[in-house]
Amino acid sequence: MAGFRKPSAKKSFSARTTGRINRSVKRATNPFYGKKGNGFIKDPERSIKNSIYHKTTTGGFSSIKSSKTEQSDDLSADEWVKVILFFIVVFIVGGFIGVTFF
């Protein structure tokens, strides 16, 4: 089951055009609409199969376009400090290794 997902233009279009009004009506009438974890309560077997499927496959267009969450994913100040310290340590250790072996 591992591999690429088959892209579907119909499903992609439907996902992009589902209106805000439809979601607001469903949210008003169904108290469980859009809540995380309710898929497991409603149909556990399907939920487990879907989670395995999504972990073992990659999207067809994932290399072509980036998702919106990746674009808006900013690092916090603590994460920037960790990244900078990591590069400093790598630079220093790399310098010592280069001097000792060459």
Mind explaining what this structure looks like?
The structure is a single chain. The chain has 6 helices and 2 strands. By secondary structure, it is mainly alpha-helical. Strands 1-2 form a two-stranded parallel sheet. The longest helix has 25 residues, at 77-101. The chain is elongated.
Per-chain topology:
Elements: E1 3-4, H1 9-17, H2 20-29, H3 38-42, H4 44-56, E2 57-58, H5 68-71, H6 77-101
Parallel strand pairs: 1-2
Keyword list:
102 residues, mainly alpha, two-stranded parallel sheet, 65% helix, elongated
In short:
This protein is mainly alpha-helical. The chain has six helices and two strands. 65% of the residues lie in helices and 4% in strands.
Strand content: under 5%
Percent of residues in helical segments? 55-70%
Largest sheet: 2 strands, parallel
Strand order of the largest sheet: 1-2
Tally of helical segments: 6
Task: Give the number of DSSP strands.
Answer: 2
Cα distance spanning the termini = 48 Å
> How much is the average pLDDT?
77
- Pairing-aware structural class of the strands and helices? mainly alpha
What would the principal axes of the Cα set say about the shape? elongated
Spell the H/E element sequence. Answer: EHHHHEHH
- Poorly predicted runs are none
Determine Rg (CA atoms, Å): 22 Å
